[in-house]
Description:
By secondary structure, this protein is α/β, with parallel strands linked by helices. Helix content is 35%, strand content 21%. Helix 2 packs across helix 3. It is globular, with a radius of gyration of 23 Å. It starts with a strand and ends in a 23-residue tail after the last helix.
Amino acid sequence: xxxxxxxxxxxxxxxxxxxxxxxxxxxxxxxxxxxxxxxxxxxxxxxxxxxxxxxxxxxxxxxxxxxxxxxxxxxxxxxxxxxxxxxxxxxxxxxxxxxxxxxxxxxxxxxxxxxxxxxxxxxxxxxxxxxxxxxxxxxxxxxxxxxxxxxxxxxxxxxxxxxxxxxxxxxxxxxxxxxxxxxxxxxxxxxxxxxxxxxxxxxxxxxxxxxxxxxxxxxxxxxxxxxxxxxxxxxxxxxxxxxxxxxxxxxxxxxxxxxxxxxxxxxxxxxxxxxxxxxxxxxxxxxxxxxxxxxxxxxxxxxxxxxxxxxxxxxxxxxxxxxxxxxxxxxxxxxxxxxxxxxxxxxxxxxxxxxxxxxxxxxxxxxxxxxxxxxxxxxxxxxxxxxxxxxxxxxxxxxxxxxxxxxxxxxxxxxxxxxxxxxxxxxxxxxxxxxxxxxxxxxxxxxxxxxxxxxxxxxx
Length: 460
């Protein structure tokens, strides 16, 4: 008997995946590809969109022909800050430009000047001025200013998830998660597109809900197909749908992203200057978010520790939390940031100055490193906590959810909240499946377990 599934294309910068979830959202199939990149017309590296499109269509054709799985719906989760520029026939006029591409900074500076200055404009759009093409609105403005031959043929502009949906359905769409994440396009005061878009002639479709589906035909089979979703918003969906209490999600990896969907206070200039932004859930609910380069800091410091103490690269995994060691280190070093002597802005330069002779052994040095990283993470989390805080739970996902010292220190600090480790695999893909499942008969979430079954042991 065929297994009924929802198919999700999860498109990251490095890996491109197809995942199939059954009717209770268990992962029943996964395949991953890495594609070579190509160069845009200026010689800058970008994703080969034609290769991705062909792979996507061929993969669906093969799955339908095979008959093992009965695909009931399709959706897409992708990275953000990427636009597709289409002519009136729906053909791409340009590559999907790499958001790390450098462009003339005067383009965004002129925009800021016209709309109240950088602080006010960034506050309205809840978008830090990230530079390059990381604010996708700048991509459209750059195209108008410097790619006039493309601009003159432009009929529609889509964010990346909506373009992949368009490939299958032919529908020109937009949705909250893509337009609301550091794009400069969304006015968070008025909760609508910012007025500069109309003035500059940037035409975007009105956003539809993320549960919207349209028909696509794969080998003659009609399949309901979603409009796609930004990966950050998608990763929140399992928690939004299953948490019994208001929460903060601390997603750890190379970047530590703290997300609070229950803080509707306007973004402040202080928060913007400390790498905070707001994005939107599928329900157009504001999510206040902060980020810290914690995983990178940890990796670089551990490499130095391993070299100094001549141990293996995973030796740190044997270190356990001990309250007495924490107390003695705090008495010994007080509030001095030993691993960040020049601050986080000059981390690499400062790391060269770290004096390991002040530590008794590896365990003491590693414990101090995690204490300092946790202190930085606490500051990052506190940036997204509102004055009238209603959150009761902090979910910690990703690599640091398995770090006993980190989780223990976080638990000891946030005494008014329950700190839980959470190990939801493929959270963005799962979120993309959940949002379209509302329109698919026979799919039920039941109860997705958010908390890890692994206990953190705290030594006294």
